[in-house]
Amino acid sequence: QDASIGSDQTVNTYWQRIKEYFDERNTSGHFRSSDSLRQRWSTINAECQKWAGCLSNVARMNPSGC
């Protein structure tokens, strides 16, 4: 979300910034490290990719006008 930072940061800096954002907004009281957040995102992202693939398959099954 910060265009001034963009791609000029290391992966560790990127995840540290995400952790800081998470910590500022965390109301659950659960602690998560930047590595924990990275792993959680990996799990969520993998499932989202599967979902997107399923939607693409369904869209191809019903050609326009049928």
Automatic annotation (TrEMBL):
Highest taxon of source: Eukaryota
UniProt cross-references to PANTHER family, sorted A to Z: F21J9.4-RELATED
This protein's name: Myb/SANT-like domain-containing protein
